[in-house]
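G., the chain you wanted modeled:
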Amino acid sequence: MDARDDRLAMADALERRRQAESRAAAALLEGFVRDATTAGIVPERLTARTYDGRTRVRTSVTGWYLKRDRSVGVDTAARFYVLSTPGGLAERLRGAALSPSDPPLELGRGARDGESLPLAEALEKRLTGGNAWG
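Predicted structure as tokens:
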């Protein structure tokens, strides 16, 4: 094997690990949605923050925020969202169209603020906060 083959093998292994992590996180989100619904924690229309951080805009996503800063959320179908958007004029008027992302097992991993949080811990905090959370 040459160096190129080694890099391809490493990239393939990393992708398999990322997919496995995403499947595990998706299972946690499914459990959260089930538990939140059972506990009567009411989902709400989520908003997204513009990239400049100054404005929040409407979205079509209904679910729960997973962090107090409202940067990530999960919808009622257990899909994970990063709640940020470019925030152009059209989005400010009509609302932001968001696409779900692959969920991580650690929220904020690699972020500049250094505030990462295991997904399981974030979900537990959200559940214990109930409808008064946030």
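The chain has one domain: 3-132.

Shout if anything looks off.
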